[in-house]
Amino acid sequence: MNRFSKIFFPQLIVPKNAVIKNQELHSKSQKLMIDTGLIKHCGNGTYYILPLLQRSMEKLIRIIDKYMSEIDGQKLTMPTLTAADLWKKSGRFETAATELMITKDRHERTQILSPTHEESVTNLIASISPVSYKSLPLRLYQITPKFRDELRPKFGLLRAKEFLMKDMYTFDIDLVEAKKTYDAVNGQYVKILNHLQVPYAKITADTGNMGGKISHEYHIITEIGEDSIISCPKCCHAINRELAKDGKICEKCCENDLKNEQGIEIGHTFILEDRYSKLLKATFLNKSGKPECLQMGCYGIGVTRLIAASIELLSSENEIRWPQEIAPYKVCILPPKEGSKEEAATKHLDNEIYNNISHLDDIIIDDRAHMTIGKRLMDMKKLGIPYLIVIGSKSADSQNPTVEVHDLKNNFVNDMSINDAINYVEKCLKT
After folding, report:
1. pLDDT per residue over 43-57, tens digit each?
2. For residue 137, is the peptide bond before it cis, meaning its omega torsion is within 30 degrees of 0?
3. Which long-range contacts (CB under 8 A, 24 or more apart) does 31-35 make?
4. Among 10, 130, 279, 299, which residue is least crowded by beta carbons within 10 Å?
């Protein structure tokens, strides 16, 4: 049984009349996540991920794993440390130098705390090249910490020096097959975001120093987003402003129709072509037995950034709202305060409700009974647990006991019988 009193939950407790000077609290999501004990600041651009948020991250990882497995994605883990020589071969050691976390071992060998793993995964395939065309397409991915030496870390997990990212790397025999893979992976990205029920925009993007000619970004639209997006409602096309020419995104777009918005990038996809495979000699044997360079793609999702961006978009200034599928818990039961007359009259009712709702792992009892129901209810609303069941004074009615159900997702509060409350929550959990 999940009990709130057992959770490591260091809320930010602010004394009355205190003046807090924290220059890093620049975003709504950052403040809410610190206040509710989801994260705690560690150092410049780094955060402790605390148990409640860890649950949400693991839920999102399971969702990503599900959709990657549907297209034969194979999960692996690559070393965080990558030899700088590989990045020098690709040319990115110089072009990305200002954002790289660089270290040296005792033998003075330069290594990189990897922000991405194009060089590393290509080196892996090159080490067993040439591979057979029969083993392709190959779709490898990992979900691991990444590092970037941000000039000005801000917005909490939205722009941190260390972050969790899902990165997939694909290998195909030619550009036609690489485009099929590209479409397949992008299709799964759409499914992931639709599964979460988070509004997003898919836009045409710049390939930058990654290579290739085709790239798309996935954005959550919000005012604090650092990317400028131009979209046309008529042709349903959107583009990063970096690529816009003369304010137009296609020949049929009228400048007066264009919409300008800010977005938080939470995903990015590329067809890399042979940008890395040619330099690092990752090859395959074609049907004629002749070696050719593999055609590559890479696909990223910022796991911690996606969670923070969702909170930024969905929450109010004072209360978190989650995509339901990644809320740390979906249901919270609040029993009466200890020593109250309701406590004696409703003894074991919290256990009865708990044991009659499926998805037991997603239910928690706020057993901090030394606190009033009102204070605990305020905490759970701020934390954004989607469905709250309050065992209060009306629950002690011997003739017609009811509980108070708070549906934060639909902004709904009502008194219900025990059975009706259980059935209502069960129905909500299935939608």
Report:
1. 999 999 999 999 999
2. yes
3. 32/311, 32/315, 32/318, 32/319, 32/320, 32/382, 33/156, 33/157, 33/308, 33/311, 33/320, 34/156, 35/11, 35/382
4. 10
